[in-house]
Design a protein that fits this description.
The protein is about 40% helix and about 20% strand. It is of the alpha/beta class. The strands form 3 sheets. Strands 5-4-6-3-7 form a 5-stranded parallel beta sheet, sandwiched between helices. The model is unreliable at about 1-20 and about 25 (pLDDT under 50).
């Protein structure tokens, strides 16, 4: 029996989306799936936050394809990247760039389209929009003007790395990219280190070794972790071990591809020893005064803030003596 594309259901009455399509002349568009032309029905007006594949172009939902096919406009980070996805599924919807460098200029056009009753799809280069990109500002403005915001769930690099890591998933914290400068990076890690949750980070391949070294120093060399590379792609890998082991593994490697680092939660009931506290204080002191450093480390470890402050003053004094010629 030959396969037939599904027939679109007929509405009982004309919808707002149908009325807009008739008024603007924007007919329903189709998309192609496994060589079949699939009729796509236009959704109601609004901003659609559409998750797209993080590597494998097959990881997209039917609802996402239908929305991309019938939208008036697709706002994307890089039109060249999104064009590959559009071409794969025979999508012809116009693309417009929306990223951190042009967001202030591009946002009014998107709001205008919504104001006219249009359907606007927002996508990122890979994964779910608004995760480490400027889309949240657009969402806030769209909501402020009374338009609908509709999320279309799908691929997500943090979640793919988390569920494939083999670490605890009951509680987790996505922390995005860490600061580039070492002092700020260690300070941020000190803030996160005591959270009783699995930590998930994005990282540049150029900084993987340096970041793993700072994680081992700040979070503990024996803490379990996973480095996930090229998720959903042909060369997907999960490198597992302690932070110290992973640092040694990546120290001399020319790392390529998209990177997610997943760090297991701290051991329950584990108290920081003096060496741990000193390492955390030293990292925090790189970017803040002793009082602030003591407060952050106390929050991360549960140690007494007054004791930590006294030790921070000692470390600060020792640093000054070392700098004296």
């Amino acid at each position: 029996m030959s396969a037939r594309p599904p027939e679109p259901s007929e509405p009982d009455e004309e919808t707002e989306a149908d009325a807009f399509a008739e008024a603007t002349g924007s007919a329903s568009r189709d998309f192609f799936l496994a060589g079949q032309r699939i009729p796509a029905r236009r959704p109601a007006p609004g901003l659609y936050i559409v998750a797209t594949p993080i590597g494998n172009l097959g990881d997209i939902t039917l609802r996402a394809l239908e929305t991309l096919a019938t939208a008036d406009l697709v706002a994307c980070e890089d039109t060249r990247v999104t064009s590959k996805l559009m071409h794969r599924y025979g999508l012809k919807t116009p693309l417009t760039a929306y990223h951190e460098h042009n967001a202030e200029r591009a946002r009014p056009r998107l709001l205008s389209a919504l104001g006219e009753g249009g359907v606007v799809a927002l996508v990122s280069d890979a994964g779910t929009p608004l995760v480490s990109d400027p889309g949240y500002r657009l969402v806030r403005d769209v909501l402020a003007e009374g338009h609908q915001v509709i999320p279309l769930p799908g691929a997500s690099a943090p979640l793919a790395a988390l569920v494939g890591a083999g670490l605890a998933t009951d509680t987790f914290c996505f922390a995005g990219f860490l600061p580039v400068k070492q002092g700020q990076r260690r300070s941020r890690l000190a803030e996160l280190g005591g959270i009783p949750a699995t930590l998930v980070f994005f990282e540049s391949p150029r900084r993987v070794a340096a970041t793993l070294a700072d994680m081992a120093t700040t979070l503990g060399a024996e803490r379990e972790a996973v480095v996930a590379r090229e998720l959903t792609k042909a060369f997907e890998t999960f490198e597992r071990g302690t932070l110290a082991e992973l640092h040694d593994r990546f120290a001399d490697e020319n790392v390529r591809g998209e990177i997610v680092i997943v760090v297991g939660p701290p051991e329950a009931g584990h108290d920081a020893n003096p060496e741990d506290a000193d390492a955390l204080l030293a990292a925090a002191l790189a970017t803040m005064k002793p009082a602030g450093a003591a407060k952050e480390v106390a929050r991360a470890t549960g140690l007494d803030r007054k004791v930590l402050y006294a030790r921070a003053m000692e470390l600060k004094s020792a640093d000054r003596k070392d700098e004296t010629p």
